């Protein structure tokens, strides 16, 4: 791909682009969120999520991972602080209790961490939103984990997730478009490649003890170019690039980056590997 912007490119003139947050949240729910289903399944299987599990899902998005845990009989609490629109979709998906979940499964959703009350402590905490991609995301997660720790018991497993090695993630080359176009602003919130020890560093600084890890293949597959653009933009990883270069330029260069992954039938397929870390509360 031949870059169409050079390093001297000036930030996009005019007011910041307006994003339809409701549409973006629905794109996340309908297109992008399912890409991490193999990760959810692997973690739940390894930790034997079932009846008796009390799960606290941090950054629960529109609730797909919670739905899968509830279908195993787990009592789930989802917290989504960054997107009221995704949280609203999670409520539609999970409340009232969805068909297929076991009887009397407890399901709670909130925009903030629950208060400490007389409820039993959580036996599993998950943070399935991959970290190490946006500047500052690791610090925010450390703060959230510290606030959530009192809601758990000693030795409770906490699952952190991130991208695998860039050479094993076809989507990494596509995400570099976000970093390059956002560079003129040098702003917080622009994409950066994840580092090998990101997860361990976050866990240790949050007072957690690493206790195992794994890798899971999570290919990104889309029906066509339009679906791929909508799905990737719904992650928020291109927001800084849109502010710097404008929506039209981002769409153009993102489509160019996706072109090598487009098959003859128009579908797009990008193999990826995600890593998860299991840490324990002190």
Summarize the structure in words:
With 282 residues, this protein is of the alpha/beta class. It is built from 10 helices and 9 strands. The protein has helices at residues 21-32, 37-46, 64-71, 84-94, 137-148, 171-182, 198-205, 225-233, 239-245, 247-258, and strands at residues 54-58, 75-79, 107-110, 124-131, 157-163, 209-217, 220-222, 268-270, 273-280. The strands form 2 sheets. A 7-stranded mixed β-sheet has the order 3-2-1-4-5-9-6, with helices on both faces. Helix 9 (239-245) crosses helix 10. The longest helix has 12 residues, at 21-32. The chain starts with 20 loop residues before the first helix and ends with a strand. Residues 1-14 have low confidence and may be disordered.
Labels describing this entry:
about 280 residues; alpha/beta; two-stranded antiparallel ribbon; 10 helices; 9 strands; disordered N terminus
Strand and helix layout:
Blueprint: H1 21-32, H2 37-46, E1 54-58, H3 64-71, E2 75-79, H4 84-94, E3 107-110, E4 124-131, H5 137-148, E5 157-163, H6 171-182, H7 198-205, E6 209-217, E7 220-222, H8 225-233, H9 239-245, H10 247-258, E8 268-270, E9 273-280
Parallel strand pairs: 1-2, 1-4, 2-3, 4-5
Antiparallel strand pairs: 5-9, 6-9, 7-8
Strand content: 15-25%
Rounded to the nearest angstrom, the radius of gyration is 19 Å
DSSP summary, beta strand count: 9
Low-confidence segments, given as residue ranges, are 1-14
Mean pLDDT: 87
Structural class: alpha/beta
Shape field:
globular
Biggest beta sheet summary: 7 strands, mixed
Helices and strands, in order, run as HHEHEHEEHEHHEEHHHEE
Helicity range: 25-40%
Helix segment count?
10
């Amino acid at each position: 791909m031949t870059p169409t912007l050079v390093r001297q490119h000036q930030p996009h003139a005019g007011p910041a682009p307006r994003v339809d947050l409701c549409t973006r949240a629905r794109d996340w729910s309908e297109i992008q969120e399912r890409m991490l289903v193999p990760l959810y399944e692997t973690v739940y299987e390894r930790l034997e999520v079932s009846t008796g599990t009390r799960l606290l899902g941090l950054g629960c998005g529109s609730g797909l991972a919670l739905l899968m845990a509830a279908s195993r009989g787990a009592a789930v609490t989802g917290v989504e602080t960054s997107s009221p629109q995704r949280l609203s979709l999670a409520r539609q998906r999970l409340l009232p209790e969805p068909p297929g979940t076991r009887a009397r499964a407890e399901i709670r959703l909130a925009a903030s961490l629950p208060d400490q009350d007389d409820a039993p402590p959580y036996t599993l905490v998950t943070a399935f939103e991959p970290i190490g991609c946006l500047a500052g995301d690791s610090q925010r997660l450390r703060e959230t984990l510290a606030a959530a720790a009192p809601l758990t018991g000693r030795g409770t497993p906490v699952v952190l997730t991130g991208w695998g090695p860039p050479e094993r993630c076809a989507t990494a080359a596509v995400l570099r478009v976000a970093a390059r176009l956002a560079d003129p602003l040098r702003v917080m919130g622009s994409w950066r490649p994840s580092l090998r020890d990101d997860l361990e560093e976050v866990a240790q600084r949050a007072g957690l003890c690493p206790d195992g890890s794994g890798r899971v293949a999570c290919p990104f597959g889309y029906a066509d170019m339009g679906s791929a653009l909508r799905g990737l933009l719904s992650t928020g990883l291109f927001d800084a690039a849109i502010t710097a270069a404008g929506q039209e330029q981002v769409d153009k260069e993102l489509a160019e980056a996706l072109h090598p992954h487009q098959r003859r039938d128009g579908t797009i397929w990008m193999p990826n590997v995600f890593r998860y870390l299991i840490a324990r509360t002190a």
